[in-house]
Automatic annotation (TrEMBL):
Cellular compartments per GO CC: membrane
Cited Pfam families: Mem_trans
Protein topology in the membrane: Multi-pass membrane protein
Sorted UniProt keywords: Cell membrane, Membrane, Transmembrane, Transmembrane helix, Transport
Highest classification ranks of the organism: Bacteria, Pseudomonadati, Pseudomonadota, Betaproteobacteria, Burkholderiales
Protein name, entry field: AEC family transporter
Regions that span the bilayer: 6-25, 37-56, 68-87, 94-116, 122-147, 168-190, 202-221, 233-254, 260-279, 291-316
GO biological process, one term: transmembrane transport
Compartment list: Membrane
Length: 318
């Protein structure tokens, strides 16, 4: 086995980190009641640092957004289609997010760098700069609307539609994901840059996000009855790693994407489910076991699907 193959060299570290977490969980090094606290640490501290620093350091005006907007068009259509298929409730929102949210950072950056070089990474960084803002914000807004509606139905408090929408929008904006992204974008327009005293701690915290989140996935996986979840997890993984890139390839080609732009966007769509979806399910306590299993299963499935994508991309008509 050639461990220097681009797909293996990008995905195996993710598998190893999940396995380390799994063994730590099986050895009871982290107790079940501590998982929620670790999840909060990652979601409310490490994620904040990563998102703010990424956006504060970006040069939004200089980025090429045309292929990225087409990527989000495909992702949005797939999200709302899955939302309807899975029942249109708060559980469905988390499932639909898993079908479109890629592990662009831990896996995407090294994989695109190996496959397309620096030019491909610049395009991927453009996608990353908006990936969480757009996809997590859409999911947050939809989920907050559903949670508000479900809570009103259970309590018998039938509030006006506008009050429900207003509450959901407020909760979606004052939220641990969109808030640091919007703050980072606003700061980037000042042109001041980040002083090393601030930048270094943010960098260290942001770098810790991927490894800690994946170890946490492994810990949770050790406490999850995967046997009961594997069929649903496999179906969701196939949507993420097969259906998503196939749609991106078809729609992107029809809308005029070619070459490097099409290749990077399709490869990004083929990536396995990102750890942010796991944290999202933990925060809202929706489909936690299934999403935990799906993150692990999609990473394994991606070993095959990404290899196929890389083989087929050069065959697309120019």
């Amino acid at each position: 086995m050639n461990l220097d193959h681009p797909v293996l060299s990008s995905l195996l570290p993710v598998v190893v980190l999940i396995f380390i977490g799994y063994m730590a969980g099986r050895a009871r090094l982290v107790r079940g009641e501590s998982v929620r606290d670790l999840s909060n640490l990652v979601f409310l501290v490490l994620t904040q640092a990563l998102l703010f620093r990424t956006m504060a350091s970006s040069h939004v005006a200089q980025l090429d957004f045309r292929p990225v907007m087409q990527y989000f068009l495909v992702a949005s259509v797939l999200f709302f289609t899955m939302l309807a298929v899975y029942g249109g409730n708060s559980r469905a929102s988390v499932m639909a997010l898993a079908g479109i949210f890629s592990n662009t950072l831990m896996i995407g950056v090294p994989l695109v760098g190996l496959a397309y070089g620096q030019a491909g990474q610049v395009l991927l960084f453009t996608l990353i700069s908006l990936h969480a803002l757009i996809l997590l914000s859409i999911a947050t807004l939809v989920l907050e609307l559903q949670v508000a509606r479900e809570a009103a139905a259970q309590s018998g408090d039938v509030r006006s539609v506008w009050r429900t929408v207003g509450s959901a929008v407020r909760n979606a904006i004052i939220h641990p994901v969109p808030l640091p992204i919007l703050a980072g974008i606003a700061y980037s327009f000042t042109g001041w840059g980040l002083h090393p005293v601030i930048d270094k701690p943010l960098l260290l915290l942001g770098n810790a996000f991927g490894p800690v989140a994946l170890v946490l996935v492994g810990i949770t996986l050790s406490q999850t009855p995967v046997g009961q979840q594997w069929k649903t997890a496999l179906r969701l993984s196939l949507v993420k790693t097969v259906v998503h890139p196939a749609l991106m390839a078809a729609v992107g080609w029809l809308l005029g994407l070619r070459g490097l732009q099409l290749g990077v966007m399709v490869l990004a769509a083929a990536l396995p489910i990102g750890a942010n979806v796991f944290l999202f399910s933990q925060r809202y306590r929706k489909e936690e076991e299934m999403i935990t299993a799906a993150v692990g299963v999609s990473t394994a499935v991606a070993l095959v699907s990404i290899t196929v994508v890389l083989a087929l991309l050069p065959l697309l008509p120019t």
